[in-house]
Amino acid sequence: MHRGDLTNAEWERLLGLLPPVDRRGDRWDEHRMMINGALYQARTGLRWRHLPERFGCWVAIYRHHRHWTANGTWRKLLAAVETAQKNAGRGSRPEHSETAPPRKRTTSDPVLISLRSHLTAIVRQRDL
Fold first, then answer.
1. What are phi and psi of 127, to 5 degrees?
2. Are 43 and 4 in contact (CB under 8 A)?
3. N or C: more exposed end of the chain, with fewer CB within 10 A?
């Protein structure tokens, strides 16, 4: 695993959110390599054809990325991570009490924070 790649904990969280395997027989380990390649490209701004070989064929990664961008998969993943982050920030405390002003709830789960950061980079890249 290289710096900037999904950690095992991040991958475990993301695995349940990924779309079902398509008819071509994609395997989840290939999805992890593709996601790491897309994250690397979004983080560095490198041209797709200059992706390091450790991510596999740049054309396949680019096509997969474009497909997930077009069908909204990246946005759905980001929304799911943001929802999980909000839900993790909710405790057993009531929404607000009369003695204290309501506080903005945040989560300290580093896996969700990191995943949100990764996915935001990809979604924003599309918006530019």
1. -75, -20
2. yes
3. C
Q: What is the DSSP letter of 19?
A: P
- For residues 49 and 60, the answer to whether their CB atoms sit within 8 Å is no
With 0-12 / 13-18 / 19 or more C-beta atoms within 10 angstroms meaning exposed / middle / buried, residue 121 is middle
Residue at 40: amino acid letter: Y
CB 37 within 8 A of CB 61: yes
Q: Cα 98 vs. chain centroid, distance in angstroms?
A: 38
CA dihedral 78, 79, 83, 84 (to 10 degrees): -30
Looking at residue 13, its amino acid is R
Q: What is the pLDDT along the chain (128 residues), one digit of tens a residue?
A: 787 788 888 888 888 888 776 656 555 567 888 899 999 998 888 999 999 999 999 999 999 899 988 988 888 888 888 888 788 766 544 444 455 555 554 545 677 777 888 788 888 775 54
